[in-house]
Amino acid sequence: MGGIFMLCLLLQNARGASPVLAGIQMVPMMAGPLLGNLMFARYSRRWGVRRPLIAALSLACVASAALLGVSESTPYWILAAAVGIADFGVGVGAPAMTFALMESAGPEHANIASSMLNTNRQFGGLVGVAVIGIAPANPGDWYAGACSSFLVTALCYGAAALVTLKYVPATGRRAV
After folding, report:
1. 82/66 Cα distance (integer angstroms)
2. What domains, with CATH codes, occur in the chain?
3. Is 151 strand, coil or helix?
4. Which SS3 state, helix, strand or coil, does residue 44 take?
5. Which superkingdom heads the taxonomic lineage of this protein's source (predicted)?
C-alpha cells in the first residue's frame, strides 16, 4: 500500500499528472495482483506454498529495487512494468501467505490465525503508508523521495523472503 501511495504522489507531483490521469496510469499496474492471485493456484499445485511465496517476495524485491534509479527521464512504461511485476509478486504472495498460515494453525486455531493475519495486514498497510509518506520530506525533490521509498519497499520484501526461507516449512502438501 505504501508503494502505491508513493507512486500516486510521484505521478502527480513530479510528473504533473492530474489525479484522474494518475489513476488511469495506475490501472495497468493493478493487473499484477489480479494475475498473481490467479496464478497462485497453478504454482501451489506444482510446488506447494513455500517456493512460490519465496519466489514472489524475491520478485517483488527485485522489481522494487529496479526503481531505485527512477528519475525525470525514466519512461512511464518502465515504471509501469516494474510496479506491475512487483505487484504480481504481491498477488502470488498474499494467498500463499494466507494458505501457509492457515495450514500451520490447523482447524483448532483457524479463527485466531485468520483474525491475526488480517489485523497484521491492516497494520502493515498503515505503517507502510506512514513510512513511505515520510520519504518525500523534501517535496522539491520527489524523485529522491521515491528512490528512498522504493529502497525501503525492496528491503522489506527481501527481509520477508528471508524470513519465509527460514521459518516456513517445506511441506509435501499442495494448495488447491
Report:
1. 7
2. 2-18+26-166 (1.20.1250.20)
3. helix
4. helix
5. Bacteria
Reported as a single tens digit per residue, the pLDDT across 86-123 is 999 999 999 999 998 998 899 999 999 999 999 999 99
Q: How far apart are the first and last CA of the chain?
A: 27
Query: d(Cα 136, Cα 171) in Å, to the nearest integer?
Result: 43
Cα-Cα-Cα-Cα torsion 47, 45, 120, 111, nearest 10 degrees, comes to -130
Distance CA 173, CA 45 (A): 9
66 vs 174, residue with greater confidence: 66
Q: Three-state DSSP class for 110?
A: helix
The cell numbers describing 68, all together, are: 531505485
Sign (positive or negative) of CA dihedral 149, 151, 155, 161:
positive
